[in-house]
Amino acid sequence: MRTTKRFTPHLLERFFRLGRGLGIFGDYIPWHRVSRSDPSSHGRSHLLQGKDRQHELLSDHEWVAIMFVFMLLDLLDVREQYPLAQQEGRHEVGAYRVDIGDELFPGTLALAAMLGFKPPKTTEGEESANWVMTTDLLIALRNDDSTVELLAVAVKTIDEMEQKRKCELLAIEREYWIARGVTWLLITPALYEEQVALNLRMQMPWTLGERASTRDRLTAVEVVRHFPGRSLTFILQQLEATLGEMDLAQRAFWQAVYCGEIPMNLRRGWRPHQPVVLLPHKDFVAQNPIASRRSAWI
Q1: For residues 229 and 277, is the Cβ–Cβ distance under 8 A?
Q2: DSSP-H helix ranges across the chain
Q3: Closest alpha carbon to 8 in 127, 171, 158, 179
Q4: Rounded to an integer, what distance in angstroms lies between the CA atom of residue 181 and that of residue 184?
Q5: 3-state secondary structure of 52
Q6: Which terminus of the chain has fewer CB atoms gathered within 10 Å of its CB, N or C?
């Protein structure tokens, strides 16, 4: 009989030995992975090829959230399933900066005690170990002065928010990042429109595909400006005639949308005969809950 893998103290030790949760950029290894050797997630898991590496996402909602992350113009790095320190330690931004000093910040065990919650544990027989809590997405942003700041994002469903224990764990996670001066966002499906999420997922092959050049993206911008209110089909046909191939036309158009050069209304339906409608920049940004820093609980 096939048995379902589950988390045990022995498995947590193995994760530590493998260097889970360490590294940045292409060298980062998520604490939880989409693999046969890991216990399965409760929802659908996804492997998504990003700029530097393959991202491992444990739900449809995480998939949508990381698509919002990829739209951030100041994005430097994103690490999914990021493990939180159980004991006090140095600031996580030190992975990108050498000027953070030696200040220590509280770990999850001390914060759980401060809040009056039992720290999560995992057991197997007579053995037990403190559970390693994680943040779904830890984002590194590059500021105008070239310094780096972090943004922590938890991605949860409405059903999860109705569970008392889940809310206790989220409270610990929230205090963890507040203690470090890091903005923490809780993203639920109620914070974004379903049609926006659907559009982002449908256009993913072009937005995350081979990079279109700056010149090709600007060509897409000029075509949209020259033909206001025309259908997506018409815009892409004009771009194909200029750039020479439809795949490049799709990539140039959607990548220009992603970086805000074409501030498109993403609430439109999927049908290509519908018009491309532009929004004021602030309204375009408002479609993205992470860019606009919306949170279900903060």
Answers
A1: yes
A2: 9-17, 60-70, 108-115, 158-161, 164-179, 194-202, 204-207, 214-226, 232-243, 246-258, 281-286
A3: 127
A4: 9
A5: coil
A6: N
The label of the residue with tokens 């498995």 reads 11
Output the pLDDT for position 40: 62
CA dist., res. 146 & res. 283, Å (int): 27
User: pTM for the whole thing?
Assistant: 0.93
Local structure of 130: helix, strand or coil: strand
* Nearest residue to 231 via CA among 201, 196, 271: 271
pLDDT at 189: 95
Domains of the chain: 9-191 (3.40.1350.10), 194-286 (no CATH)
Contact (Cβ atoms closer than 8 angstroms) between residue 56 and residue 81: yes
- Tens of pLDDT along 90-123? 999 999 998 888 999 999 999 999 999 999 998 8
